[in-house]
Amino acid sequence: MTARLPAIIAALGCAGAVQAGGIDRSGQSIAALFEQGRHVEFSLGSVSPETSGTSVAALGSVNSGNMAEDYLQFGAAYKADINSQLSYAIIYDQPFGADVAYPTGTGYYAAGSRAEFESHAVTGLLNYRINENFSVHGGLRVQSVKASAAVPVVNGYTVTGDSEVGVGYVAGMAYEMPEIALRVALTYNSSIDYDVATSETFLTPGGFATVNTTTSVETPQSVNLAFQTGVAEDTLLFGGIRWTDYSAFTIAPAGYTNATGAPLLSYDDDVFTYSLGLGRRLTDQWSIAATVGYEKSQGGFAANLGPTDGNTSVGLAATYSMDAMTITTGVRYVDIGDAQTQFGPFAPAANFTDNKAVAIGVKVAYKF
3-class SS at 31? Predict the structure, then answer.
């Protein structure tokens, strides 16, 4: 077993930006922190979801049309050693997001509803190697969020939130056995709290009225357990488990909540995401990898702005190495879990079935 394996552990990361659980997108990976030497990487993913449902007979049995928009996912990281025991990494990602837009003119009860949630995070990490096997890591994450939404069926409601910046932290530990390419890393990502200045607009008998409010938003805490191990010469088994505290995540602007008695967006259950993959080095230049992913369906009713429940995914990737540079391309197919929504007294109000997403991506990494 040789420890000189290419970076096939991350071979599918550039096409992995499909997390059906909540608004999770990047998975908040810190894999760059464990790269050898000085390392820089850039990634770009393109995600194309197809998510539609049909209302129940009492609401006209109308198809919603595809309500999930395509989006791009960017990432970058820089890692370097300070000395033989201490190293650092600076990681940029877009950890959470939503791009929802129900088509208009369909007759569907949520037609014209939309939501956008955008986040950007820069994480600075230090890794201290205690000995050959154990290390600890931690640092700070600076993250911005911005959101807007429209729910025309609720008195023409719209809301726009200002961009806000918050700070959280990251802490973890890792165990490694380099001779068999083994690494197990446990990382905690704290929640980040915001008080977002929001502008809410309703249609009243006298016309549209706008009220300025403050909405508390907390991006969820999470725990990542990532592992890899050599299982044969030039063959690597890898995977992970991610827990995300979505039961504590709520977006509840005061005006909307007062009018409807419910938050704009919330989740009843936490989400566990599982992944397992196998990578193989074919030559000095080429490596391939395959992975499967799974999120359990939680049951109950999903939000109209997020009508999914669990997922199953498969992915393939290839990495080409030339001197100090590696280029990885990957594709992932996601079978999005069926979900039911509710609307006022209608529970269920619609059934979302047979939905999917396809992600393609590229990652370029360089060591110097």
Answer: helix
